[in-house]
Write a structure and sequence with these properties.
about 300 residues; mainly alpha; Glycolipid transfer protein, GLTP; two-stranded antiparallel sheet; 2 strands; binds the ligand CCCCCCCCCCCCC/C=C/[C@@H](O)[C@H](COP(=O)(O)O)NC(=O)CCCCCCCCCCCCCCC; lipid transport; ceramide 1-phosphate transfer activity
Length: about 300
């Protein structure tokens, strides 16, 4: 009885075994193609990196949830309780929401330190999902570390907010609009742009989760969000890796547990409030990047 052969593993068991292997191979492949100074988008066409050519035709995806979510007064207490009482988890949605909220200044700018705090919470969430997502979380962590490096560095005071970073990097020609030079730490602006694009994915994914009435699969909601947003900026290979990873997402009920909600009504309140805060951060950053023509940085 104790010995369960492969035949008894079931669909999910097999998936758990195979997915990490597939991802490991893809990860190794990508590690090789992305050795220091060698970037995937060194594929050149018409004198431009291929990724840039692709981005030229992509317009900003307009998705539904960019409207403010209105809470009933009775829901406000419920929301506060959920956000406060979720202390037993490594990932705390309350701390993430707080950080996204605190990073918006009165002058409608974004504080980078708080922005990165919110991202660190997201990374904890992905790490909690298991080995399949480590590849994605470590990619996000790399971007967070680059920005933190600038914040802690010699010119750290210029990296306090998104606007000050953009101003400093443009004035000092840190931003490269044509290519990503090998053997250089990427600029703060292009690094933040990667996280900023991922934030749109997160917005749509959380919206899908919040609007679900419990029947939908998390993998489908995640894939839908990804296809509408972040996938437009990814190579074919990365898109395949992402699609495989989505299959390993836990079911909705387990996802609810991680965000400390127990039923659909709670989930809707918590997730759509989170979306609302993310939208504010996203829109401010988007405006700054649009103003400086920096939405397609290679
Ligand atoms: C719930 C978990 C959902 C997992 C979501 C998967 C999102 C999509 C897959 C991303 C693949 C990342 C692989 C690498 C991509 C890079 O090529 C690419 C470009 O970088 P480069 O220009 O320097 O080369 N990098 C990026 O686009 C940065 C992507 C960072 C991905 C962060 C995804 C955040 C998702 C957070 C979900 C958390 C849900 C929380 C629910 C409460």
């Amino acid at each position: 009885m104790a010995c369960q052969g492969p035949m008894k593993m079931g669909y999910h068991g097999v998936l758990r075994l195979i997915l990490p292997l597939v991802l490991l191979f893809l990860f190794l492949y990508m590690s090789i193609t992305k050795l220091p100074g060698v970037y995937l988008h060194e594929c050149i066409q018409d004198g431009k990196p291929c990724s840039q050519i692709q981005n030229d035709v992509i317009e900003e995806v307009k998705v539904e949830p960019s409207t403010s979510f209105k809470l009933d007064p009775s829901d406000v207490q419920l929301l506060e309780d959920v956000l406060k009482n979720c202390k037993q988890h490594e990932f705390q949605i309350g701390r993430m929401v707080e950080a996204f909220r605190f990073c918006v200044t009165e002058k409608k700018d974004i504080l980078l330190e708080e922005y990165l705090t919110a991202w660190r919470q997201l990374i904890k969430f992905m790490d909690a999902l298991g080995a399949v997502f480590t590849f994605i979380s470590s990619e996000a962590m790399t971007k967070v570390n680059i920005l933190q490096g600038y914040l802690n560095g010699e010119h750290g005071k210029h990296y306090r907010t998104v606007t000050s970073m953009v101003k400093y990097e443009l004035e000092n020609e840190v931003v490269n609009f044509k290519e990503l030079p090998p053997n250089h730490v990427p600029s703060g602006c292009r690094t933040l742009l990667r996280l900023h694009r991922a934030l749109k994915f997160l917005e749509v994914f959380l919206y899908n989760l919040g609007m679900s009435v419990g029947r939908d699969k998390t993998s489908e909601m995640c894939a839908d969000a990804y296809r509408k947003t972040l996938s437009h900026h990814h190579s074919w290979l990365i898109r395949q890796v992402a699609e495989v990873a989505f299959l390993a997402l836990p079911p909705l009920e387990d996802m609810y547990k991680v965000v400390c909600v127990s039923h659909h009504k709670e989930a809707k309140i918590v997730l759509l409030t989170t979306v609302d805060d993310i939208v504010k951060v996203y829109n401010i950053t988007q405006e700054v990047y649009t103003e400086h023509g920096m939405l397609d940085l290679p």
